Amino acid sequence: MKMLLPLFLATAGFASTPSAPPPAPLTGDYLEVRSCDVYTGSCVANSEMGLSGREGMLVWSVRSGEWKGVSLAGLKVIAVVHTEDTLGDVKYFPREGKAVLIVDASANSEQAAALQDFVKAMAGPLVREVVAVKPSTVDVELGQCSAGACAKVKAGGLVEISTRCLGGKDHLCGNEENFYPPLTRVQGAFTAFTELAAYRGPGLGVTWELTGKRSAYLATFALN
C-alpha cells in the first residue's frame, strides 16, 4: 500500500503544486558623491574631519530585477543625505542623518514605494529621517568612458553631478588611498574625480555646489 500512495494522491487531485520561481536578483549601477575627499591622504582627511563631509548623494540605477516582488527594472532613485558630522566609515562610525529621496517619476505608486523601501534597507541610519520624497525625471549616465569613471546625473533642478577619471595631476601628496569606504553595500567600487556635485533643493536646511573634489565612487550592486 505504501508504494501506491504517491500514485493515489496524484490521481485523486492531491499532486504537489510547483513552487514559485525565486525573485529576479536586483542588479544595477551605483554612484556616490560626498562633500569631502574620499580618495586622499590622512593629512588632508584629518584637516577635513568635523568641518566638512557631512553631505552625500547616493544614486542607484537599476538594470534589472525585483525588490520584494516589485519589478524595478530601468528605474532610478537618489538619496541626498545630511548628517551631524563627517561621513566616515559607517561600519565603525555610523551616522544618523536626514534625507531627501528623489524617486524616478516614471515609477508607478507600487514601484515608488518599493524604491523608498530599498533605499532605507541599503542606506540604514543615513536615511533615518526622510524629510521629503520628491518624484523627478532622473537622467543617469555612468561609466561613459574607457576607464568607467565618467558619469553624469541630473534630477530636475534638484541634483546635478559630473565626474571624470582621476589623473596624475589629482595626486596631491603621493600618499593617497581610498580613505573612506562606500556608504552602502556595493561591488567593485573605484574612485573618481568630482567635477560638479550640486544639491539645490529644500528639506535639509542646506544646499551645496562643490567642484574639484576627489569625492566620488562608482560601483555596481547585486542583491538576491
Keyphrases for this structure?
single chain, 224 residues, mainly beta, eleven-stranded mixed beta sheet, two-stranded antiparallel sheet, 3 helices, 13% helix, disordered N terminus
Describe the overall structure.
The chain has 224 residues and is mostly beta strands. The protein has one domain. The protein is built from 3 helices and 15 strands. The strands form 3 sheets. Strands 1, 3, 6, 7, 8, 9, 10, 11, 13, 14 and 15 form an 11-stranded mixed beta sheet that branches. The chain has a two-stranded antiparallel sheet with strand order 2-12. A two-stranded antiparallel sheet has the order 4-5.
Distance between the amino and carboxyl termini: 43 Å
Q: How many structural domains in the coordinates?
A: 1
Number of strands: 15
Low-confidence stretches: 1-11
Rg, rounded, reads 22 Å
Report the major sheet: 11 strands, mixed
Overall residue-averaged pLDDT value: 86
H/I helix tally: 3
Nutshell version of this structure?
The protein is mostly beta strands and 224 residues long.
Explain the layout of strands and helices.
Elements: H1 5-11, E1 26-34, E2 39-40, H2 42-48, E3 55-64, E4 66-67, E5 70-71, E6 76-83, E7 97-104, H3 109-123, E8 129-136, E9 138-141, E10 151-155, E11 159-164, E12 177-178, E13 187-199, E14 208-210, E15 213-223
Parallel strand pairs: 7-8
Antiparallel strand pairs: 1-3, 1-15, 2-12, 3-6, 4-5, 6-7, 9-10, 10-11, 11-13, 13-14, 13-15
